[in-house]
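Progress report, Aim 2. The chain analyzed during this reporting quarter is listed below.
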Amino acid sequence: MQQGAPWNPMLIIGGNKVAEIEKQPLLKWYHEKFKEMLSGSQVVIIGYSFNDEHINKRLCHAVTQGARLFIIDPSGTDIIDKRPKGPGMIPIPTPPLMEALMGGIDGASRRPLVATFSGDEIER
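Predicted structure tokens for the chain:
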């Protein structure tokens, strides 16, 4: 950073991320490029919690445009299911996020990445 230059942090945490992203030209550009690159692509999603509405919206749209998803997460595709779980829980309908994404998921892996990249030929 140049001496005397203003410091513009670009770490966006907490709520209202979309509004904050819109204020930062670089982040806004990244978000648009992300949208463009997703449509019709094969996308590997590693360790994403599916808790960011702006990312979920882009992924859902991409699936309608032919994107295919593969999820790597210890929870597998269950990571998309945000319904409360546990004994005595009353089943509720499939949440909209699951409904929108499940048709675009080609597969998932629950194995740790270290196993994938250290000799597991099937996972690789």
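The two ends are 40 Å apart (CA to CA). DSSP finds five helices and three strands in the chain. These observations will guide the mutagenesis work planned for the next reporting period.
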